[in-house]
Design goal:
The structure holds 3 protein chains of 3 kinds.
Chain A lengths: L1 H28 L13 H10 L6 H9 L39 H36 L4 H15 L2 H15 L15 H27 L2 H8 L4 H38 L5 H11 L2 H29 L9
Helix pairs in contact in A: 1-11, 4-5, 4-7, 4-9, 4-11, 5-7, 6-7, 6-9, 7-9, 8-9, 9-10, 9-11, 10-11
Chain B lengths: L5 E12 L2 E13 L4 E5 L6 H9 L7 E10 L2 E2 L5 H7 L4 E4 L3 H4 L6 H13 L3 H14 L5 H5 L8 H13 L5 E5 L7 H18 L2 E6 L2 H7 L2 E6 L2 E7 H6 L4 H9 L39 H5 L5 E3 L8 E3 L4 H9 L6
Parallel strand pairs in B: 3-8, 3-9, 6-7, 7-8
Antiparallel strand pairs in B: 1-2, 1-4, 4-5, 9-10, 10-12, 11-12
Helix pairs in contact in B: 4-5, 5-7, 7-8
Chain C lengths: L9 H13 L5 H11 L1 H18 L29 E3 L10 H14 L2 E3 L12 H37 L1 H16 L2 H14 L1 H8 L3 H29 L2 H8 L4 H37 L11 H10 L8 H29 L8
Antiparallel strand pairs in C: 1-2
Helix pairs in contact in C: 2-13, 3-5, 3-13, 5-6, 5-9, 5-11, 5-12, 6-9, 7-9, 9-11, 11-12, 11-13, 12-13
The chains are: A mainly alpha, B alpha/beta, C mainly alpha.
């Protein structure tokens, strides 16, 4: 168990390091810094900016400062020549640096403000995906071959085939213009997240429905279901105790990619519904060349996806006793 | 000799597929007495498993249909019971074990869970109380250290142990009838012997009737008192085991017996097999299903399906029946030593 | 002669031969083709996709209005069914830069239809452009993007995966570790990074190498999707490498090349085909996604993603321009649906576990 965690942690560290390093140097290498294209600035302001963002340093020094855990500027540890007021800094110390675009804020500030919203959206999307997907998938499997089954399958395949912003658009027309039930834009309460959550989770609900259906059908054709029936167990027990666990396993392993997908999809959904989440900040940061914010969000999302994947793998081993921890 | 434990009459099971309708079982009748072991023999596709599943009400219903027949058990016709009543019988009065214990046990549940649920459902026992009985059940089938085994998962046990678990599960409630569908086919030969011995032992102690379904003549020889041979969904011969092996009265049965390589005789002689291929149930010939492969075939064999008639064999224990026009002639040939086909 | 008991006579061989001809075995492909044809949904999807592909290919030939001509003075027009207005004269050959073949098709069209063009059967959009024409022309771009990306991912992925699986051992481990690392990175960020960065150098790329944004686009997307392809192919190759039938082929004296091409490749191919058919819809959606974020196809070119974006941008509570959302979405959804159904059908048809059953 500890070996499993340690190994995962090791690969995670390597992955993260690759991400940070490559993106850092890629951004530095590209011509066109974050302040190009702005009005020509006064020389002293220009110098202030250079100093504040350490753009005058050697790129490698900037890199080390960014990564941390030691601060390399004038507030760094004494043995490096600083005054020791803030010896720690950089990503390894949890500090993503100042935003290039939003001059009065650090990246940590922006993330702290927007992440809870995005997480809330993601959670609601996942809830939609699971409840809809599992129920439709199971109903489909149990009514195999009937018209209801065909209808469900068509619905599921359509859910996969339509881009989520189109679903979002239709939802907006339906629930805001035609039947004003829910708020459409901005963020004020959880009610603002219901529609966006559905638009975000919709395609995943469709995929989960398909997986559930296939998984359940495969389990229901297994010999041990026949044994359970031969023992005289009532149908409900056969389904819930014998079939469900095995049938849902493919969905559990899908949760990993699904989370990553929800993260990705949130970029678009947050834009459409004007939700001030981390996703929309990321897109803006990429377009505005706000490098620290872009990298901060990237790192954050990489951490999230990795952690959730590890969690899902772990949960899978709990469900299926044949799999041992540490196997892929 | 009381009333038979299971009395099946004229059972016919049809499957409706896209390629056409097929009668997997046609007008099969047999009776099982208390405490006896009846062997049901045939190759794959002969209908023996379908017969047993039909009795248990486990035929998947589309596409399967029980066209006609009765299965009398405990004074009731199983084929006409309401689903809830049938469920009460299954696992409690009639139990069934299957061929491959690896796939027949749920890999995601512990042994204890799978055993105790039988007690929970049929006897309303709480899980704790059931646990002790499960351990005893495992002990009865000769599993060492049963308490520890209860918390194991099926994949952690060997093949022989798993089959013992299946048997324990089946016999927990002391059923009157045990249907064993190829119980030893998936096991090593040495384990096979152990399992068969175990079943015989349990039968002797509890008086359970056993319907043993297999394609393996060797298994039948050691365990069953009477044998029924099936071909293409129909019964073709019935007899007590020793008479069947000594004096087969149907060309199919004698073909089967002859194809087993013996320890004596010329090792270079070609192995004998039954000519032709197993029948396609969708395209059965109008007369006897075995006619295309039979060495003794006559014109009347193709005219109509031969009836399962009683043949008078004084040397046999109990009645003998064979569905062949040549049956009497075969019996006569057996009486002349050295002239058996 | 002691041998007599062992030899089969000529008649026995003839009998064996005639029996085996009657009960002909089936190769994986024949079995798969039969099962695919029986799957009506998949078969119809296949036909639909063929028709669709043909339409896209011959788009310049159809008497459609230009997809590019702007008319900013009018509002979006609702659809006018063909029985009300079949068409008008007034065709202007207004396109972006077309290839030689396309130019020839346009000339052919002018020769046949003159200045006649179809009416606004599906309506017009916010800039006065005919929607039907944009949908048909947009299909070309969308297919092109999807195919190019799919082929890209196929080339890289199959090579990498096959090599990794075949070499095995430490090399395989290392190669797959690289894939795992790349896999953990939420690739959307990589794509956005890359495209944003490439945008900086856009003019140079275009002028010096003739590489426009689209080509970069294909390469970037292809470079993202090869990961799963590599994994899948490697898994297949690994599984196959040690199978008994490969060993049997070797025992029978098959050379390595023969083993590779006659035995390994066909088995890997089936998995690749299925995956490819399912990647294309994913890529099309991804293109729409990027276009939405402003990083994809730009005017004057058209793609379905762009149309979907245009449509959703026109959503407002005052005037519901439903046709701008409905028709592009229908086109996209039906094509993706067909691809998914076909992909599923192919997967079921090629699944060796289902061989012989139905």
């Amino acid at each position: 168990m500890t070996r499993f965690l340690l190994r995962r942690l090791l690969w995670f560290a390597i992955t993260l390091w690759v991400v940070v390093t490559v993106s850092f140097f890629l951004m530095r290498a590209v011509r066109g810094g974050p302040f190009d294209g702005e009005r020509a600035l006064h020389e002293s302001i220009e110098r202030n900016i250079q100093a504040r963002y350490h753009l005058d340093w050697h790129p490698f020094k900037q890199y080390l400062h960014y990564v941390g855990p030691l601060n390399l500027d004038q507030h760094g540890p004494r043995f490096l020549g600083g005054d020791g007021t803030r010896p720690f800094g950089g990503v390894l110390a949890g500090d993503f640096g100042p935003s290039f675009k939003y001059r009065d804020f650090t990246v940590n500030d922006i993330i702290a403000q927007s992440l809870p919203i995005s997480v809330g959206l993601g959670v609601i999307a996942m809830m939609w995906a699971l409840t809809l997907g599992l129920s439709v998938g199971m109903a489909s499997a149990l009514r195999r071959g009937t018209r209801a089954d065909v209808a469900f399958r068509l619905l599921a395949t359509t859910g996969i085939a339509v881009p989520n912003f189109v679903i979002a658009g239709c939802l907006v027309i339906l629930f805001v213009f035609l039947v004003p039930l829910l708020p459409v834009a901005g963020y004020g309460s959880w009610r603002h997240l219901v529609l966006p959550g559905f638009a975000l989770g919709g395609p995943f609900a469709a995929y989960i429905a398909r997986l559930t259906r296939t998984g359940m059908l495969e389990v229901l054709s297994q010999d041990y279901i026949r044994t359970a029936r031969a023992k005289g167990l009532p149908a409900r027990l056969v389904l819930l105790r014998h079939a469900l666990k095995g049938g849902v396993l493919p969905v559990v392993s899908y949760l990993g990619p699904a989370t990553a997908g929800i993260l990705t999809g949130s970029l678009v959904i947050e834009r459409i519904f004007a939700i001030p989440g981390t996703g929309s900040h990321f897109v803006n940061s990429a377009l505005n060349r706000d490098y620290t914010l872009a990298m901060g969000v990237t790192i954050l999302y990489t951490v999230l996806v990795y952690a959730l994947n590890a969690l899902v793998d772990f949960a899978y081993t709990l469900l299926d006793p044949r799999i041992e921890l540490g196997e892929s | 000799m009381g009333a038979p434990v299971l009395d099946v009459r004229d059972l016919t099971v049809r499957f409706d597929t896209r390629q056409g309708s097929v009668r997997a079982v046609e007008r099969v009748s047999f009776a099982l007495e208390q405490g006896e072991t009846l062997g049901l023999v045939g190759e794959s596709g002969s209908g023996k498993t379908v017969t047993s599943l039909a009795v248990m009400g486990l035929i998947p219903s589309p596409p399967g249909v029980v066209e006609s027949g009765q299965a009398w058990f405990g004074g009731r016709d199983l084929l006409r019971l309401a689903p809830a009543q049938l469920r009460a019988v299954r696992g409690d009065r009639i139990a069934m074990i299957f061929q491959d214990p690896m796939t027949s046990l749920n890999p995601l549940l512990t042994v204890e869970r799978q055993l105790s649920e039988v007690l929970e459902v049929h006897r309303g026992l709480a899980r704790r109380a059931a646990r002790a009985l499960c351990a005893k059940g495992l002990g009865d089938v000769g599993i060492p250290d049963p308490e520890a085994r209860l918390d194991a998962y099926p994949h952690e046990l060997s093949g022989g142990l798993r089959q013992r678990v299946m048997i324990a599960m089946a016999l927990l409630l002391d059923p009157a009838l045990l249907i064993a569908d190829e119980p030893t086919t998936a096991l090593d030969v040495t384990i096979q012997a152990q399992i068969l011995e175990l079943m015989a032992d349990l039968q002797a102690r509890r008086g359970t009737a056993i319907l043993l379904i297999t394609h393996d003549l060797g298994v039948i020889a050691g365990t069953a008192g009477r044998v029924h041979v099936m071909y293409a969904g129909r019964l073709v011969e019935t007899a007590d085991t020793s008479s069947l092996y000594a004096r087969p009265l149907h060309p199919y049965t004698s073909g089967l017996l002859a194809s087993v390589p013996g320890l004596e005789g010329d090792p270079r002689a070609p192995l004998r097999s039954i000519a032709g291929q197993p029948p396609d149930l969708c395209e059965l010939p109008p007369g006897c299903a075995f006619a295309p492969r039979c060495e003794l075939v006559r014109a009347e064999c193709r005219a109509g399906v031969p009836a399962l008639l009683e043949i008078d064999d004084p040397a046999a224990r109990g009645a003998r029946r064979a569905a062949c026009v040549e049956a009497e002639r075969l019996l006569a040939r057996h009486a002349v030593p050295g002239s058996a086909p | 002669m002691a041998k007599e008991g062992w030899d089969l006579g000529r008649r026995d061989y003839e009998r064996l031969l005639s029996e085996s001809l009657v009960h002909k075995g089936e190769s994986l492909w024949r079995d798969a083709a039969r099962r695919l044809r029986r799957n009506r949904a998949a078969w119809w999807s296949f036909l639909f996709l063929c028709a669709f592909g043909l339409t896209a290919l011959l788009a310049p030939l159809f008497p459609l209005p230009s997809p590019v001509t702007l008319d900013l003075s009018i509002e979006p027009q609702p659809p006018v069914p063909p029985w009300v207005e079949l068409g008008t004269h007034g065709f202007q050959p207004d396109y972006w830069e077309l290839s030689g073949v396309d130019e020839a098709l346009v000339s052919a069209r002018r020769a046949v239809f003159g200045t006649w063009q179809t009416g606004p059967w599906l309506g017009t959009d916010g800039k006065g452009r005919d929607l039907l024409s944009r949908i048909v022309w947009g299909s070309r771009t969308s297919i092109l993007v999807a195919l190019a990306a799919a082929v890209c991912s196929l080339l890289i992925g199959v090579t990498y995966g096959a090599l990794s699986g075949y070499l095995g051992g430490r090399v395989d481990n290392l190669m797959m570790r690289v894939v795992d690392i790349l896999y953990s990175i939420p690739f959307i960020f990589v794509v956005i990074f890359l495209i944003t960065i490439v945008n900086e150098y856009r003019t140079e790329l275009e002028d010096r190498f003739g590489i426009d944004r689209e080509v970069v686009f294909f390469v970037v997307i292809g470079a993202i999707y090869w990961l799963t392809m590599a994994r899948v192919v490697r898994g297949q190759v690994l599984a196959l490498r040690n199978t008994e039938f490969i060993e049997a082929a070797r025992v029978l004296g098959a050379s390595t090349a023969r083993v590779l091409f006659v035995h390994l490749v066909p088995n890997v191919l089936s998995v690749v085909i299925v995956y490819l058919t399912l990647t294309i819809p994913a890529v099309m959606l991804f293109e729409a996604f990027l276009t939405f974020l402003g990083l994809g196809i730009e005017p004057p070119k058209v793609s379905w993603g762009l149309l979907a974006v245009d449509g959703s941008e026109m959503i407002n509570p005052v005037r519901i321009y439903w046709w701008l959302v409905l028709f592009p979405s229908l086109a996209m959804a039906s094509t993706l649906l067909a691809l998914n159904v076909l992909g599923d059908g192919l997967r079921d048809a090629l699944d060796p576990k289902l061989r012989g059953k139905d």
